[in-house]
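Consider what follows.

. . .
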Amino acid sequence: MTATTSRSIQGTRGRKSEWSATEAIKSLILEEGLHPGDPLPTETALCERLGVSRSSVREAIRTLASLDIVEVRHGRGTFVGGLSLDPLVNGLSFRAKADAHQDLRTLREVLEVRIALDLSVAETLVAEYSGAPNEELDRLVQAMTDKAQAGELFLEEDRAFHHLLLSTVDNTLISELVTAFWTIHTEVQPYLGVAPGADIIETARAHGTMLEAVRAGDAEAYREAVHAHYAPLRRAVDRARGRREAE
């Protein structure tokens, strides 16, 4: 056996051991019924319990921490992580930025997913908000409109509006996905190279139209308002693609 072959076998065994430790820790969390914030056994205890080396446990913890399945609190130990969508956001944001100077495919697809998610809750939102006032949503719409007319962006108000609008929907994953794809879109938006213009006034007003529609109990009007909300964003992407194709 050559030295190269020996190192290759050792490397494969090492990766298999780390993979085994990663899956074993995930199984431990499930079997013990642990929840976000609950402590995990110490590194030594994990080595003994799983029958793997300390280096395998450490590598497994690093892998799981990157997925928000565990959280390492230095000086305090390792805990079950938040199980958030942060890894999805980070991965898709990087992917979108990677093709931002080409065909913007990922950003276009993210935009399509955002539209699909907003449309999917039309009937639910109508049932929840029909005839129901909400001063905070009104305040956010007014703040977005004021900033748009002043030529300013309104990212925080936009995020808060979508989050609050969906807060009554009995589906945590939809709310988290909406926030996740909003974040991805917002992080990649500067790569379009489009300065704020009249389009942002249209976008701001569309939020108000969405709110008026659900209060009126009109699901179809809400869907039309959703498409109006995203129309300026679609145009911005199309303009950016046109410039790239012309270069």
Summary: The first strand starts at residue 70 and ends at 73. Residues 3-31 form the longest helix (29 residues). Strands lie at 70-73, 77-80.
